[in-house]
Amino acid sequence: MQRDGGRVYFREPGGSRFLLIDQSDQPKPDPVADWRQQEKARRGGYPEYRRVRLEAVDYFEKAADWEFTYAVRGGRQHVLNRGVVTSPHQAYGIYWSTPDGQWASSQTMLRTITASFRPAS
C-alpha cells in the first residue's frame, strides 16, 4: 500500500493487478457526465484505447462505471474506473486494473472490493 495525498494505491505482490482509491471533497453532480468528459481528455494517454462501457450504476448516492482496455507491452490491460458520490461533499474513484487475460478470473475480487468499500467518515 502506498499513499499520495487523497490517493491510496494497492499493487499485487508479484503480479500486475492494481487498485487505486482516489478521494475528493468536490464531487461532480453527474458521475456519467464526468467520466465522459474525462474520457475525451484522457483516452489519448492510453495506447489503442477501447471503451467497453460507460454507464450509471446503482452504488451509494450516485455512481458510474467507465470500463475500458488499452495496449501495454506484451498485451492489454482491462480497467474498471468507478466514480462514486457518497455525500454532497465526498466522492471516490475506485480504479481496478488487470491484464485482460485475468479480467474474468478477477471479478470475484472486484466484487469483494466494491461490496466492502466504506467511505471515510
TrEMBL record:
Residues 25-40 have a biased composition (Basic and acidic residues). Residues 20-40 are annotated as: Disordered. This is Serine/threonine protein kinase. It comes from Kribbella koreensis.
